[in-house]
Amino acid sequence: MPVDGQQKIIRKAINGTDVLIKDTGFSEPEILFITSYPPRECGIATYSQDLIKALNNKFNDSFIISVCPLESENEKHTYTDRIKYTLNTDQPGAFTTLAKAINDNADIRMVMIQHEFGFFEKKENEFRQFLNALTKPVIIAFHTVLPHPDDSLKVKVQQISVESASIIVMTNSSAEVLIHDYRVPREKITVIPHGTHLVPHSDKDLLKNKYKLTGKKVLSTFGLLSSGKNIETTLKALPAIVKKDPDILFLIIGKTHPSVIKQEGEKYREMLETMVAELKLQQHVQFINYFLPLPDLLEY
Fold first, then answer.
1. Matching CATH topology for 3-191 and 204-299?
2. What is the residue extent of each domain of the chain?
3. May I ask the CATH architecture of the domain 3-191?
4. CA 57 to CA 249: how far, in whole Å?
5. Which has the closest alpha carbon to 166: 192, 133, 196?
6. In a structure prediction context, what are the per-residue pLDDT tens digits for the chain, which is 300 residues long?
7. Beta partners for 138?
8. Which of 16, 127, 222, 247: disulfide with 120, CB 3.0–4.6 Å?
9. Ordered strands of the 138-142 beta sheet
10. Which are the contacts of 124, defined by CB distance < 8 A and separation ≥ 6?
11. d(Cα 138, Cα 10) in Å, to the nearest integer?
């Protein structure tokens, strides 16, 4: 996990707003993460937990990280890690209450928000007012940056940018989209790659034998399934690939996103399964309909 980059953006954000993290003599400065968080089954939840662990491991004596999980009426959880606040986006007044709590807490010097548009669906105005109400520097990590936005999306992203001290994206291409398509100032953006777990490489042949993939050339995608993944694009391209290399097997790893299940059931997965049948790809596509534990995911 590239934690040095994370430290850089923290300093940049504070300097940009004339607020310094310094020792008050009473307590370490605190950074509040607002994010989905385990046990919620969500890629950003797992990412945030991993990022916090990495930051704590490297900068344990520099600052404290606290967590405010994002919830809704359909997504409430019991947490094993220590939680400072929760934000139920469906609860009236929740954004206002949280903003006041953050502003009144002298230990919190910065707010880090892991942003995905689905987290604040139909609550965009409340979220924008929340950002405006905060008196602490806000760092936004955009997990989705869509090119060629319509006017509505462009305005939403620009409004978030204005209220933020700094913005994090994970790829150079995302940064360029923000700069050129959304007119976000280049100096406000920092690219920090997603990172991954550093694990010893297991023997590929042994793993293929374990998962009954011996003799296959494996392509894969992983993560909670939703239409935004555009997996159908790969499926459409696969017949031509299989014609050249009959040993290809495409693994679609991950169950459907819980929020998607509640809105539309398995509509997207069933569409993909129908496409696989129509393209006669049953021997070359395998669905693994689970939220894989981390050790299993790393083996894949």
1. yes
2. 3-191, 204-299
3. 3-Layer(aba) Sandwich (3.40)
4. 38
5. 192
6. 444 444 444 444 443 433 334 444 457 899 999 999 999 988 899 899 999 999 999 887 789 999 999 999 888 999 988 899 999 999 999 999 999 999 999 999 999 999 999 899 889 999 999 999 999 999 999 999 999 999 999 999 999 999 999 999 999 999 999 999 999 999 999 999 988 777 777 788 888 888 788 889 999 998 888 887 889 999 999 999 999 999 999 999 988 877 788 778 899 999 999 999 999 999 999 998 887 777 777 766
7. 111
8. 127
9. 87-88, 64-71, 30-35, 108-115, 138-142, 166-169, 189-191
10. 156
11. 10
Contact predicate 49/127, CB 8 Å? no
- For the beta carbon of residue 15, count every other beta carbon within 10 angstroms: 13
Given CA atoms 50, 53, 55, 58 in this order, what sign does their dihedral have?
A: negative
Enter the pTM of the model: 0.77
Q: Strands 108-115 and 166-169, how do they pair?
A: unpaired
Q: Amino acid identity of 215?
A: G
Which are the contacts of 291, defined by CB distance < 8 A and separation ≥ 6? 41, 224, 254, 255
3-16 vs 43-59: helix axis angle to the nearest 10?
A: 90
CATH 1.10.10.60 holds for 204-299 = no
Q: Are 168 and 190 contacting, i.e. CB atoms less than 8 angstroms apart?
A: yes
For 214, the 3-state DSSP assignment is coil
Burial of 5 (0-12, 13-18, 19+ CB in 10 A): middle
Q: Which helix (H) or strand (E) holds 220?
A: strand 217-222
**Would you call 288 helix, strand, or coil by DSSP?**
strand
Q: Cα separation of 167 and 9, whole Å?
A: 8
